[in-house]
């Protein structure tokens, strides 16, 4: 009897988790006017490097580096999302506006960049008149699938003005 109750509880928990995942994906904001071109990916293994006051370290797991060229057309947007690992973004041309969960805009122009980490939800849009080209460097766990570099999220409830 106890085993049946335990199996039933586990089954209900799994179904509830699946429902949350399906609802989360259904509420995610889709990208538009964005083209992602994977350039390369390599396994680095466990990282521990430092030089000139910069330190990079992966704790207990193997890491991959992946480089993606992202082109965002005028009016294009990434949709709300987050990333595993750490992401370094360089704006090569154009201008983009990044919004975080606090809905405040940060304008990033060609020659500038930004860092995304700690799984923070954000949104990037090209509010300019020219295409924006970004080079995105992902440092992610080796187990991250190619489709897992960007994880869609629903729009934060307080950011209804950001579309």
Name its key features.
five-stranded antiparallel beta sheet; 1 helix; about 160 residues; about 15% helix; disordered N terminus; three-stranded antiparallel beta sheet; globular; alpha+beta; 2 domains; Jelly Rolls
Textual characterization of the structure:
16% of the residues lie in helices and 48% in strands. A hairpin with a 4-residue loop joins strand 7 and strand 8. It has 1 helix and 12 strands, in the order H-E-E-E-E-E-E-E-E-E-E-E-E. With 163 residues, it is an alpha+beta fold. The chain folds into 2 domains: 1-30; 31-152, Jelly Rolls (Sandwich), CATH 2.60.120. The chain is globular, with a radius of gyration of 19 Å.
């Amino acid at each position: 009897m106890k085993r049946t109750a335990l199996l039933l509880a586990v089954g209900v928990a799994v179904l509830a988790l699946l429902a949350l995942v399906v609802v989360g994906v259904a509420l995610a904001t889709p990208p538009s006017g964005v083209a992602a071109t994977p350039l390369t990916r390599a396994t680095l293994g466990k990282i521990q490097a430092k030089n000139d006051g910069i330190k990079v370290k992966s704790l207990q797991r193997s890491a991959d580096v992946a480089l993606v060229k992202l082109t965002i057309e005028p009016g294009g947007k990434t949709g709300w999302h987050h990333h595993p690992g750490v992401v370094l973004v360089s704006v090569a041309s154009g201008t983009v506006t990044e919004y975080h969960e606090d809905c405040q805009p940060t304008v990033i122009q060609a020659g500038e960049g930004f860092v995304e980490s700690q799984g923070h939800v954000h949104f990037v849009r090209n509010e300019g008149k020219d295409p924006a080209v970004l080079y995105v460097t992902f440092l992610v766990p080796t187990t991250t699938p190619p489709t897992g570099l960007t994880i869609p999220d629903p729009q934060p409830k307080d950011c209804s003005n950001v579309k």
